[in-house]
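Worked example

This section walks through a single chain of length 421. The input is the sequence exactly as stored; nothing has been trimmed or padded.
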Amino acid sequence: MKITILTAGTGSYYCGACMRDNALAKALIADGHEAHLVPMYLPLQLDEERVDPTTPVFFGGINVYLQQKYEIFRRLPRWIDKFFNGRGLLEAVAKRSHLTSAKEQGEMTYQMLRLEESHLDKEVDKLVEWLEGDGKPDVILLSNALLAGLIGELKRRLDVPIVCTFQGEDSFLDGLPAPWCEKAWAEMAKRVRGADALIAPSHFYAKVMEERLGLESGAIEVIPNGIDLTGYEKAENGQRIGYLSRMCHAKGLGLLIDAFIYLNDPTLQLAIAGTMGGGDDEYVAGLKAKLAETGLSANVEWLPDLDRQSKARFLGSLAVFSVPVTYPEAFGLYLVEAMACGVPVVMPEASAFPEIVAPAGCGLLVQPDSVTDLARGLRELLDHPDRKAMGEKGRRAVEDRYHVGVMAADFERVFRKVASK
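Given that input, the structure is written out below as tokens.
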């Protein structure tokens, strides 16, 4: 089969959805399919080699903004669009994305969901022409439902089945100001119904989106995210508490630092790895200042933007792993990566975490948003006599359920089903 994955670049070095899409494309190719990964909005920044590294960015963020705001940019020649789609320029804009007003971000999100009524015909033409020139795919996979505005146009112009996955859209949409939040939710609810299949990475998130979008129970199939285990070795029972995700409030970094301070144990180390998006540097500076006031700065290590090999070594050095997310997380690929290295985990008893951690028996679940309960869980797991065995259970769970090969086989089954209709 020929499968094209449209993946929405975020400009983040550690975007779980983009990592999932790249791993899926590689696995499909290894299984004998022709799979292509096509970035939308921004270039992909991954910790591993990207499938199709020469594929251009479509609906580049700068072009989308200018063409929606100013009529003259809708009529300019394509060579000018190509200039605005330059990787360096788009990456620079991504780092300053927090400077875009909430109103403008909401309006652009809404317009992308109602593509036929937007002023982006030129961008649609470029994407369709590229897809036709590369050879029409048998199936198109949209990496998240914020791309659902493309469903109608792609099906009309290419006559191919569309599969749409969900990857945390609720938190983004709920952060938009009125009236764009309500408008975008309503438009998404209408657009996703045109897809031939809908997929979520967890039962928790499937239920969330079914309720939010007014879909029937069971309308969204569950396929957990998976990782390539290459390079992820079992932990050597290190002596550090570790965190790996975006360094921001929503991921619970401040909560983890407060729990570390609460433990008040000078023998413990906290290692923080991940990436910083627009505006996160100020947040991180505040956390570092708090640590300095408590005299614990020397006990905390900051490791931004690790490549795949360094990330695996980092995870393998940990005694305990925790990302105490404060919002409804759809999955949490970082959790599976830690489990792959045999590291036991302490996670909130919320979101998708119970359905991953509890069946695996690979760690503890604690009360969400509680510094004291998080600190208790960390202490209990650090002192637990079966800590190593719990980590080994986590590794086996990844091998059995969260391996990229399992994920690819499940997606292939869905692709064949919709292609046969």
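What to look for: The mean pLDDT is 88.
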